[in-house]
Amino acid sequence: MLAVENLEVVYDDVLLVLKGVSLKVPDGAVVALLGANGAGKTTTLRAVTGLLGLHRGEITKGRVELDGRRIDQLDAPEIVRAGIGQVMEGRRVFAELSVEENLRVGGYAKAKQIPEGLDRVYGLFPLLAERRRQVAGYLSGGEQQMLAIGRALMTSPRYLILDEPSLGLAPLVVAQIRDLLVEINRQGTAVLLVEQNAAMALRIAQHAFVLEVGRVSVSGPAGELAQTQ
Ligand code: ATP
């Protein structure tokens, strides 16, 4: 179980953007985190993945726990090693590196597992296998998103955290990403999915949380929330 409890986050020592956020991702589940621009979704993910410090943010109250153990004092690579893979905003593949080099960088935190990581990712994304020697910067937006997801899978995370994977992609590509997330989950990885595309997220999630200005305003089974959309 990945649990965020009563989390408060401040940027630049003064700007309070999370005001007591709690959410849970059970093992093997798909959970959606929804909300308008600026609600605090990305900030929540940064807190879970150890990336707040990079953005001058700080947890001032609350905790993040993995199986009952606090992880909010670990640094980002330690959190990856603890079993949490991340696909943060904007894809950010290394444009000048090849597809395979990008994947190898993703596997760095668990270097011994790189060969099996490559097998798994190429199994899930045959297109990446075909293009393994191609420079990542020449891939389409959807292919780069797949590479970013593949890179996060290289350490065989128990939890995969994604920040708006459908952003800016054509509907057909969004559907492909959705199907891939379903397959990744079927293989045993739990998913925490931040989306503004609520319809897409609610189709694959079992449970959803809606953030509004730094607080969870609604949470419940995804099917029920979908009906109120
Ligand atoms: P979006 O979909 O636009 O990314 P979001 O729900 O992910 O929205 P956050 O990006 O977490 O929201 O932003 C929450 C609030 O924190 C916003 O008011 C934003 O301006 C502010 N914020 C985000 N990052 C920083 C930062 N590094 N320094 C100061 N304020 C920030």
Walk me through this protein's architecture.
The structure is a single chain. The chain has 229 residues and is α/β, with parallel strands linked by helices. The chain is 36% helix and 29% strand. It has helices spanning 41-49, 76-81, 99-106, 114-124, 126-130, 141-153, 171-186, 198-204, 222-228, and strands spanning 2-11, 15-25, 30-35, 57-66, 69-70, 84-87, 159-163, 190-195, 207-212, 215-221. Helix 3 packs parallel to helix 6 and helix 8 (198-204) packs antiparallel against helix 9. It is globular. The mean pLDDT is 94. The site of adenosine-5'-triphosphate (ATP) has 16 residues, from strand 2 and helix 1.
CA-based gyration radius: 17 Å
Give the beta-strand count: 10
Question: How much beta, percentage-wise?
Answer: 25-35%
Spatial shape = globular
User: What composes the largest sheet?
Assistant: 6 strands, mixed
Query: Could you give the order of the helices and strands?
Result: EEEHEEHEHHHHEHEHEEH
**Helical content class:** 25-40%
SS class: alpha/beta
* Amino- and carboxy-terminal Cα gap: 28 Å
Biggest sheet, strands in spatial order?
6-7-8-3-9-10
Which hetero compounds are present in the coordinates?
A: adenosine-5'-triphosphate
Number of helices: 9
Taking all residues together, what is the mean pLDDT? Answer: 94
* Uncertain regions spanning at least 5 consecutive residues: none
